[in-house]
Amino acid sequence: MARFSFLKLIRDQRSELPSIDELKKNLTGKTIIVVGANTGLGLEAARHFATMNPGRLILACRTAKTAEEAVQDIKTTTGCQTVEYWTLDLTSFASVSAFATRFEKEGGGKLDILVENAGIATNVYRATPDGYESSIQTNHLSTALLSLLLLPYLSKTPNSRVTIVTSEVHFFVSRLIEADSPKILDRLNEKEYSTSKVMAERYNVSKLLNVFYGRALAERLPAGTSISVDLVTPGICHSKISRNLHGSQKVVLGLLKFFLARTTEVGSRTLVHAALAGDQETMQGKYLNKCNVEEVSDYVISEEGRVVQDRLWDETVGILREKDGRVESVVRELLRSG
Ligand SMILES: NC(=O)c1ccc[n+]([C@@H]2O[C@H](COP(=O)([O-])OP(=O)(O)OC[C@H]3O[C@@H](n4cnc5c(N)ncnc54)[C@H](OP(=O)(O)O)[C@@H]3O)[C@@H](O)[C@H]2O)c1
């Protein structure tokens, strides 16, 4: 039984994480993409990768100015010259598609590590230009689209890895009530439904969707695949993640951070561990906390959770195949049915 408890959280936050020297691997010749690497955990994880002699380190960021600053910062602090940024805005499916097209042309044909770190926490409904609630598109739909469009390049590399950054807040969703509606994602995207009470849970729900998606993707990789997919929580860390939260949630998170947060650098080691440690056998579909495999929430592994996971997969792929025709062939050629 895996349950969230405040005592466990305190213990987890106080436990020591491995040093970066213990996590280090030689990344010579390898291509690594870190999504959302201009600040926060993504920036610090990218800085760590930069110390491992990466063949190519791509920071996938939405704002050119902060991305360029991150590149210069990493070059100065690590001496790594193989770091660059590519534009990617997860609030736009067209931007995700353009990123994948650029990778097709300029990526060198193979991808070793994809760290899907970018995310937002908001308790206010905002629609993206594509018409989706912003955290559902950013944290779930576009994250899924990117992983699917890059799967062909990951499949060309031995022991490649997709790491999806989720959170222990997925434990807070004891049941996804939107699953009572015929279409879960449509329900989550409804403006009228997404009242402030509903939006108060939205970040937790979006991180639960990460867990469902990562596990569903891992299960659909065929036997003999070179790809492993894992899920990681960095724990509570200092970063700008609460910038879009309002009211009491911002205050509560601020207090938790004040008393319990890891530094951004320490938290980023969990991403590095998730991206580099173990192999397919030990990491496939696994949820990682404090650089250890742990159980996901009881809901995720319940019978109902199983059904919801499959429904969400079908709905997600159904939406994404309309956004980019390549999704259809990736699912048909590189994945098996669930
Ligand atoms: N910090 C914590 O305590 C904590 C705990 C559990 C899980 N997490 C997870 O850790 C991940 C990283 O968060 P963080 O704490 O480092 O927060 P952060 O400092 O706010 O960084 C978030 C990153 O995501 C990027 N991003 C947001 N929206 C984007 C979009 N539409 N397109 C492309 N990039 C976008 C941001 O870019 P901009 O700067 O341009 O907005 C930034 O680089 C998130 O998935 C979060 O859910 C964090």
From TrEMBL:
Pfam families: adh_short. SUPFAM superfamilies: NAD(P)-binding Rossmann-fold domains (SSF51735). GO terms for molecular function: oxidoreductase activity. The keyword Glycoprotein does not apply. Keywords: Oxidoreductase. InterPro entries: NAD(P)-bd_dom_sf (IPR036291), SDR_fam (IPR002347). Gene3D superfamilies: NAD(P)-binding Rossmann-like Domain (3.40.50.720). It comes from the Eukaryota. This is NAD(P)-binding protein. It comes from Sistotremastrum niveocremeum HHB9708. The lineage of its organism: Eukaryota, Fungi, Dikarya, Basidiomycota, Agaricomycotina.
